[in-house]
Write a structure and sequence with these properties.
Elements (H helix, E strand, L loop, with lengths): L8 H19 L2 H8 L3 H8 L2 H24 L5 H18 L7 H9 L4 H27 L9 H19 L5 H13 L2
C-alpha cells in the first residue's frame, strides 16, 4: 500500500518555482529544491519526475498565471490605452516591489536556457505567441472604438508591446527610479 502524500503538489510547485526564479536552473540543486519544498529526494522524483520536468512544470505554471492576469486585465471595461498602461506599470511596480529583484521568470529562463533547451525554447515561443495574441486582440478592440489608429497593424503593435514588456522587466530589475520608468511608459504609449 502506498503511503499518502504529506505535501501539497501545487504549493510544492510554487516553492520550486521560487527557488528556480532566484537561482536559475543551473544554480539550483536537488538539495535546494527538497529543502525549500520540505520533501525528500525520492518524493520529489516520484511526484515531479526529474529536476528538468519540475522546472518545466514551474515555468508553465508561471506562464499560465501571467496569461490569466493579462486576460483579466484586458477584460476590464476601460479605455484600451489605460489597460496597456496598467499592464506596463504593473510590471514595473511588481519588479521594484520584489526585494530580491528577480525580474521576470520567463525572461530569466529565456536568457539562461532557450538557446540550449528545445523544450524551454518551445515554451518561450508559445508564451510570446499567446501574449502577442492577447495584446493584438486588445489593440483591435481599441481600433474598433477609435482609441487607436485603425491604419496601424495590430500584430506589429502587439509585437512592439511584447518587446517592451520584456524589456521593462529587465530594466526595472536593475533601475530603482520608479518615476523615470513610469515616464518611459508615456513614450511607449505614444507609439500606439
Amino acid at each position: 500500500m502506498a503511503r499518502p502524500k504529506k505535501f501539497d503538489d501545487a504549493a510544492g510547485l510554487q516553492k520550486a518555482l521560487n527557488v528556480f526564479w532566484k537561482k536559475g536552473y543551473a544554480g539550483t540543486s536537488i538539495s535546494d529544491l527538497t529543502a525549500s519544498m520540505d520533501i525528500n529526494a525520492p518524493s520529489l522524483y516520484a511526484t515531479y519526475g526529474d529536476k528538468h520536468r519540475l522546472f518545466v512544470s514551474a515555468l508553465q505554471a508561471y506562464m499560465q498565471a501571467q496569461h490569466t492576469w493579462m486576460r483579466q486585465a484586458v477584460a476590464e471595461n476601460k479605455p484600451v490605452k489605460d489597460i496597456i498602461r496598467f499592464l506596463l506599470a504593473s510590471l514595473v511596480d511588481d519588479t521594484l516591489a520584489d526585494p530580491e529583484r528577480r525580474g521576470c521568470f520567463m525572461v530569466n529562463t529565456v536568457t539562461e536556457m532557450a538557446n540550449q533547451d528545445t523544450q524551454v525554447f518551445t515554451i518561450a515561443a508559445d508564451n510570446e505567441h499567446q501574449v502577442r495574441s492577447i495584446l493584438a486582440d486588445l489593440i483591435r478592440k481599441g481600433q474598433a472604438a477609435g482609441e487607436i489608429d485603425a491604419g496601424k497593424d495590430a500584430d506589429i503593435l502587439a509585437s512592439f508591446l511584447f518587446i517592451n514588456f520584456m524589456g521593462i522587466r529587465v530594466i526595472a530589475a536593475t533601475n530603482n527610479d520608479k518615476k523615470h520608468l513610469h515616464k518611459s511608459l508615456d513614450v511607449i504609449l505614444s507609439a500606439i
